[in-house]
């Protein structure tokens, strides 16, 4: 029987689940470190919850990761740039076989803007060692592609950006005002660069600061 290539999703705060069609023998292992070579050469990871992946890495060798998809949520409960950077720091040390990296920054209107303007996130992401391809998508600041290309020595490809695509206008609108965000120099995010949960008093203070 032919099984799908090993693919694991980390989209819950705790735990993970396998892509449908993955070999059940692999799914039943307590750690992929015990997998025989004929069953596992590499694994693809899709993550929106960095803490869940870090828990998995306590018992699994990061060097088995060949394809990494990072989905950056835009919700109140989404992980902070700092949580992502803890994961990126570990992966840049231990994930020595990442061939392909794909990153998507979500944004849900003026309130849930996601982390597409976070210099902390992009500086952490740029630490990753990727050998073959870098794909980006969604909503991100103006200088991010050039910064990633310089730091990772791979040209980012956004498949949604092409003549006539509606994404071109949406991305330009999102990038308006991000010209001053400089990941080469800036090391901290500004107040409005990342989503913040605040009550009405906090909002008034921020408007008068």
UniProtKB/TrEMBL annotation:
It comes from the Eukaryota. This is Uncharacterized protein. It comes from Paraphaeosphaeria sporulosa.
């Amino acid at each position: 029987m032919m099984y799908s290539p090993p693919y694991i999703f980390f989209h819950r705060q705790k735990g993970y689940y396998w892509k449908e069609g993955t070999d059940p023998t692999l799914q039943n292992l307590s750690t992929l470190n015990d997998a025989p070579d004929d069953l596992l050469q590499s694994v693809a990871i899709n993550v929106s919850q960095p803490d869940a992946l870090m828990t998995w890495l306590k018992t699994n060798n990061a060097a088995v990761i060949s394809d990494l998809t990072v989905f950056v949520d835009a919700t109140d409960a989404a992980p902070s740039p700092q949580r992502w950077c803890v994961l990126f720091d570990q992966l840049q040390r231990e994930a020595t076989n990442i061939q392909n990296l794909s990153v998507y920054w979500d944004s849900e209107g003026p309130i849930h803007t996601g982390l597409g303007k976070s210099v902390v996130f992009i500086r952490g992401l740029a630490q990753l060692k990727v050998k073959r391809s870098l794909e980006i998508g969604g909503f991100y600041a103006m200088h991010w592609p050039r910064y990633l290309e310089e730091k990772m020595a791979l040209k980012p490809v956004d498949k949604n950006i092409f003549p006539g695509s509606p994404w071109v206008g949406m991305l330009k609108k999102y990038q308006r005002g991000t010209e001053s965000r400089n990941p080469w120099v800036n090391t901290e995010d500004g107040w409005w660069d990342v989503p913040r949960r605040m009550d009405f008093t906090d909002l008034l203070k921020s408007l008068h600061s």
